[in-house]
Amino acid sequence: IFLDVNPKAFRAIVDWLNMMAILSDEERQGRKPSVNNKEYKHLLEHQMGIFVRGDKPGDPVTKTMAWTGMTDFELQRQRAATANNSTATRNLPISFGSPGLGENITVAIEKKWEILKELEADILSLEESFLKEEQFIETFAADGVSSDNIVTLNVSGTIMATHRTTLQVIEDSVLAQQFDNTKWTEQSNRPNVIEWTPEEVAQWVKSINDVPEDVSQIFLDNEIRGSELFALDKVGLKMLGLERVGTICLLSDEISALKKEANEDVVTLIEHSPYCFGKILDYLRMKHFSAMGLCGDPDLPSVSVEKREMFETVVRYYFPGESSKLILREKKSVTSGFSFGHGQPPSFSDSNKFGQPPSFSPFGTPAPAPAPAPGFSFGPPGPFRPFE
């Protein structure tokens, strides 16, 4: 099963489960998976809700399970074991020959029935849990059943893999249009050899340089299809009737090269920051899971301060207009707590023109003029006189 999730967060869950498997019940208490980078914390929370707790984040039951480190199956098994162990303690002693023999037997049978009903409820709960898990796995398997749905991306040298459906989760975006059926078919030009007919196989053999013309007819006469072509080795080519060593070796090499080409992943180049595109991809993954009903609404990406401007630029490129608001956080406008006289800018008087700071009042009332500096005159304008 191809898991279209953030690998760092999923790795933390796997490491945590491996550790829980070797710890005692007492040592398990209070342990939970963690990631070093706080930017991945919300991704870990969502993946825990999908793969471990089986419920949406925020549910009180899921929080309890997160802290105890127990899965649904373990909790149900513990309850069944508790009910089973209680059989001995809840049985009443029966003493044959005692006056209340019939009454004691009746009470004991009733207690037995109560315990059996509890165990039956636990078994039904386990069956329901297994059914949910089966449906969960089928959901993931169905999403990645076609290899054409898995996309390999070369993001400026960093290889990432995801589903095409994940990249198309926000409709009408540039990213969704880039991977729609029409354009994706144009990118995926690898030969579909498995579905070749005998005529197509013969035509391919005929196109190989230095292979005699009659060899293609041998393939056609034996009705070799594309799926059978990949199974042919040197022994199989001899069984077809080929005798010339050079031709057999040449065809063997060409078949191997064709098999490699057909199985090669189509890598799409993304010329943007791996950090920024990775954040976008993680958000789209969670949004895809949310649309499938596997988790709640995803949190917006957590981006470092120094990368925020670049991240917003990349988001607006792939999600222009209103669609960018689905991923970007709204910027809060910061207003000053000062008033400049009923919305007017601070007034500059003649008393400022000799280098004094502008006078304004935070409460909108005129501020007193600063005291005149020694040697300066604030009277009516007159002829300029240098300092004496």
Topology:
Elements: H1 7-22, H2 25-28, H3 41-52, H4 60-68, H5 72-90, H6 101-143, E1 150-155, E2 158-163, H7 164-167, H8 174-178, H9 181-187, H10 198-206, H11 213-221, H12 226-229, H13 234-240, H14 245-263, E3 267-270, H15 274-291, H16 308-318
Parallel strand pairs: 1-3
Antiparallel strand pairs: 1-2
Helix pairs in contact: 1-3, 5-6, 10-11, 15-16
Strand order of the largest sheet: 2-1-3
- Quote the beta fraction: under 5%
The proportion of residues forming helix, as a percent range, comes to 40-55%
The outline comes out as: flat
Give the beta-strand count.
3
Unreliable stretches, pLDDT < 50, 5 or more residues?
A: 54-73, 86-97, 334-367, 372-382, 384-388
> Which value, in Å, is the CA radius of gyration?
37 Å
Instruction: Please tally the helical runs, counting DSSP H or I stretches of 4 or more residues.
Output: 16
Described by strand count, sense and barrel closure, the largest sheet is: 3 strands, mixed
Intertermini distance: 92 Å
The averaged pLDDT comes out at 75
List the secondary-structure elements in sequence, H or E. Answer: HHHHHHEEHHHHHHHHEHH
